[in-house]
Known about the structure:
Distance between the termini: 53 Å
Oligomer: single chain
Number of strands: 6
Largest sheet: 4 strands, antiparallel
Number of domains: 2
Shape: flat
Helix content: 25-40%
Radius of gyration: 24 Å
CATH topology of the largest domain: Threonyl-tRNA Synthetase, Chain A, domain 2
Low-confidence stretches: 148-158
CATH class of the largest domain: Alpha Beta
Strand content: 25-35%
Structural class: alpha+beta
Amino acid sequence: MNGEFLEALDQLEKAKGIPKASLIQTVEAAMQSAYRKHFGTTEEVRLDIDEARGTVRMIARKPIYPQVELDRLDWKLGSAGMPAADGLAPVEAQLLVQARLPAEYGAQQRRALELVDALVLDLGRAADGLQVKVTRPPFDLESGQVLRGGARSDRSGADSTPQFALLISRGLAP
């Protein structure tokens, strides 16, 4: 079917003199509209056409992470070990991220922990040499105890939004 679709676009281009790129844009807009109407969504949708393979795919970008509110970002550069033979010490850039999840995650402690863990994994895959670790989980974790939130004194306050902190670091070439 996909190969036939691409062949039909080629034939339209030749027969009617309409540039293939223009036909693809029109088809993409129509498919986006139909997708949004059918699924009742406003998410980003695009058409991926690989002419070499003869494939056409509709790709919908679904939000994985809820709106995360950043409270504070702290940058730091520092030495990352002993100097090399040339006398230059490796340098490491660090970013401390303090953030909070939406309030509804205050009642979904396991989901909040899973979400932060997934975020850490995705950030770690974002670039070679990037290291990401949780320095403060959104909830207190103690072996053998049921999950609870907001028990730390630095987390108390009127709102019950789960707060967390990440340390993102990467070695820099001297």
